[in-house]
């Protein structure tokens, strides 16, 4: 029992050991491309070309000679994966996941030699990244052109988004070199993009690469070297050969060695030697700064030289198949593209027709809404008009009633007018009779006035004559009294003195009293004196009564004439009514 358990335990431990050992023999790999990320789990004993072929099959790449796998070694230095060695035999940076970059290792001499579109796409992305990172120097004008192609390759004929980061189109050195706003840069790029209207994105990528391959630093791998004099230089390896640059200028080479003139390349430690094709020329030797740099230089020189010679040989069957297949695919894509363009144009036409129909439908719906609104308004107006018609009919009935009443009123007014006209005619006849009567009265009164004037003059003469007689009589009485009084009774005292009587007539004329005569004695007897004073008092009373009668007559005549005038003014304008009584006639005459 114990043994069987132990045996089982041993068997279980062997299975666990097998699993752990298999896990230890495998490794996780992450492969980064410029637009994708791939993960694999492979054996540590897998060789480099097996991993490389697996990645190429996954990406569908057949032009494998352009690419390579880049990684960092245990010292943190970027290296190319050796395809002939196993993964476990290479100095990879230890981690849970081993990372590799799948990039172009050998650039083509002419980008038009690229057959596959996926190769063109990856080459486009890598060159664009090198330009944006300033690894490839590019003037500002060419940067704008390349940015326009990059936008066309990404968006095609579609409209651009509102905001595109300027750093994704132009290198920072170019942006900082010119004091321009982002909108100004985009305007410049848009002006060039207008020229690429209708260009397919794949064709835009090819045009981008064709412009970029004319740059001096396109596809150049730089390595620091020094000559025998220890002058620091740059060695540039390109698809056409080797170039030597000064440290201050990596654009223009000072020496060039095309691959056709190079027979052999060798290196020993840091020293590299290049043998020229002619036997007479000396070997060209230089020193790299580090040993791993010499290995990378040698590897790049061998690979570029092989590709250079391969391009000058006749195409292999595989390459011919690839080209024919690529041509067929391109022709098929061109056909599909043309068909797609036709479909797009047809779709655009249908969309346009659809928009037109939608617009017409919208217009019709709007017209229907307007018609419905006008109909509703018309119905409301009809209702309002009906109400108005009813009210108008009511008003018409009222007006007819009012017209009948007005006709009755007119007839009544006509009767009243006829009556008033009759009354006016009667009043006119009465007025004529009154005016004739008043004229006769005025004539009679004028005659009476003249008669009154004559009578008044006679009355005044009789009054003056009577007054004169009265005065004469009084004077004669006074003289008789004075003569009968004893002589020598002169009025020495105020008691015996008498004042002569002054008589006032109606015309306010004063008659002077007669002069007092004194007797020889200068005194008057007392009884005669009393009698004289009594008579004088009676005369004074009579004169005062006479004055009062005259004043009362004057006032009565004034009031009578005023009332007569007012009455005459009311009767006939301009007519004068003469007084009828004698006293009023006197008063009227006094007031003339």
Task: Please characterize this protein's 3D structure.
By secondary structure, the chain is an alpha+beta fold. The chain is 58% helix and 13% strand. It contains eleven helices and 14 strands. It has a seven-stranded antiparallel β-sheet with strand order 9-8-7-6-12-11-10, with helices on one face. A five-stranded mixed β-sheet has the order 2-1-5-3-4, with helices on both faces. The chain starts with a helix and ends with a helix. The model is unreliable at 1-22, 486-525 and 566-578 (pLDDT under 50).
Helical segment tally? 11
Beta-strand share of residues: 5-15%
What is the element string, with H for helices and E for strands? HEEHEEEHHHHHEEEEEEEHHEEHH
* General shape: rod-shaped
Estimate the mean pLDDT confidence. 79
Structural class: alpha+beta
Order of strands across the main sheet: 9-8-7-6-12-11-10
Quaternary organisation? single chain
N/C terminus separation: 185 Å
Give unreliable regions as ranges.
1-22, 486-525, 566-578
Our Rg estimate from Cα atoms comes to 78 Å
Helix content: 55-70%
Give the biggest sheet.
Answer: 7 strands, antiparallel
Total number of strands: 14
């Amino acid at each position: 029992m114990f043994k069987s358990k132990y045996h089982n335990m041993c068997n279980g431990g062997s299975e666990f050991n097998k699993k752990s050992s298999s896990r230890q023999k495998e490794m996780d790999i992450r492969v980064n491309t410029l637009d994708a990320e791939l993960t694999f789990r492979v054996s540590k004993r897998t060789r480099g070309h097996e991993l490389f072929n697996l990645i190429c099959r996954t990406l569908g790449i057949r032009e494998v000679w352009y690419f390579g796998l880049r990684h960092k070694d245990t010292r943190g230095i970027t290296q190319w994966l050796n395809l002939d060695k196993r993964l476990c035999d290479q100095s990879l940076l230890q981690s849970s996941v081993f990372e590799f970059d799948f990039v172009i290792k050998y650039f083509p001499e002419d980008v038009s030699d690229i057959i596959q579109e996926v190769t063109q796409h990856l080459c486009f992305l890598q060159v664009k990244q090198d330009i944006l990172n300033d690894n490839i120097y590019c003037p500002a004008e060419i940067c704008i052109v390349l940015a326009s192609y990059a936008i066309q390759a990404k968006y095609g004929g579609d409209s651009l988004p509102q905001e595109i980061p300027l750093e994704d189109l132009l290198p920072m050195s170019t942006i900082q070199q010119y004091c321009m706003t982002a909108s100004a840069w985009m305007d410049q790029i848009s002006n060039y993009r207008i020229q690429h209207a209708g260009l397919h994105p794949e064709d835009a990528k090819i045009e981008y690469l064709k412009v970029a391959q004319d740059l001096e630093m396109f596809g150049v791998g730089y390595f620091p070297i020094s000559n025998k004099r220890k002058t620091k230089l740059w060695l540039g390896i390109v698809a056409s050969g080797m170039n030597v640059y000064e440290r201050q200028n990596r654009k223009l080479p000072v020496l060039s060695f095309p691959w056709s003139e190079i027979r052999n390349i060798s290196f020993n430690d840091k020293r590299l030697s290049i043998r020229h094709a002619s036997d007479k020329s000396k070997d060209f030797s230089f020193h790299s700064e580090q040993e791993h740099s010499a290995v990378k230089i040698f590897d790049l020189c061998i690979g570029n030289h092989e590709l250079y010679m391969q391009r000058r040989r006749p195409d292999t069957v595989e390459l011919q198949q690839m080209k024919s297949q690529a041509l067929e695919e391109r022709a098929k894509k061109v056909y599909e593209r043309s068909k797609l363009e036709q479909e797009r144009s047809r779709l655009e036409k249908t969309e346009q027709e659809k928009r037109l129909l939608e617009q017409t439908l919208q217009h019709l719906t709007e017209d229907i809404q307007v018609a419905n609104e006008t109909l509703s308004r018309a119905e409301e107006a009809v209702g309002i008009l009906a109400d108005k018609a009813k009210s108008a009919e009511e008003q018409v009935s009222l007006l007819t009633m009012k017209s009948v009443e007005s006709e009755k009123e007119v007839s009544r007014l006509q009767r009243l007018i006829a009556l008033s006209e009759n009354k006016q005619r009667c009043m006119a006849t009465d007025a004529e009779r009154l005016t004739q009567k008043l004229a006769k009265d005025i004539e009679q009164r004028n005659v009476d006035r003249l008669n009154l004037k004559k009578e008044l003059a006679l009355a005044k003469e009789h009054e003056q004559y009577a007054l004169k007689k009265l005065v004469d009589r009084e004077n004669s009485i006074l003289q008789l009294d004075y003569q009968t009084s004893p002589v020598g009774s002169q009025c020495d005292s105020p008691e015996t003195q008498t004042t002569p009587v002054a008589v006032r007539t109606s015309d306010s004329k004063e008659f002077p009293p007669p002069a007092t005569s004194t007797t020889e004695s200068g005194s008057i007897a007392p009884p005669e004196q009393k009698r004289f004073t009594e008579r004088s008092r009676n005369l004074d009373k009579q004169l005062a009564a006479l004055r009062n009668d005259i004043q009362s007559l004057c006032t009565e005549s004034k009031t009578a004439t005023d009332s007569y005038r007012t009455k005459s003014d009311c009767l006939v304008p301009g007519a004068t009514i003469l007084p009828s009584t004698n006293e009023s006639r006197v008063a009227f005459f006094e007031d003339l």
